[in-house]
Amino acid sequence: MYKLDMNTTKVKTIQLEWKYSPENYLEEPISIPFEGGCLDICNGIALAAIDPLIFQNSETLQDDLTKIIESRFSAVQIMTHKDFNLSKPSRTDIQ
Q1: Number of CB atoms found within 10 A of residue 77's CB
Q2: What pLDDT sits at residue 80?
């Protein structure tokens, strides 16, 4: 996994973004706070804004967030019997 050198980087936030379809799969936006950030799910995009130090110190955070998203969508799938597609996360470092 890519590690940050906090002495040489000026990254203020790390964003992980997943895309899902259909875009209207959820009836309303979801916001899930977690230690070091927040995960917002709305209109076909799940976006996590993460403190760089928290991201660096957690080898499983990306997988944990993916599981949270999949769990929410699976609950909707059980109720609606509609399938969903979820992309792998992409990462953006915000300076």
Answers
A1: 14
A2: 95
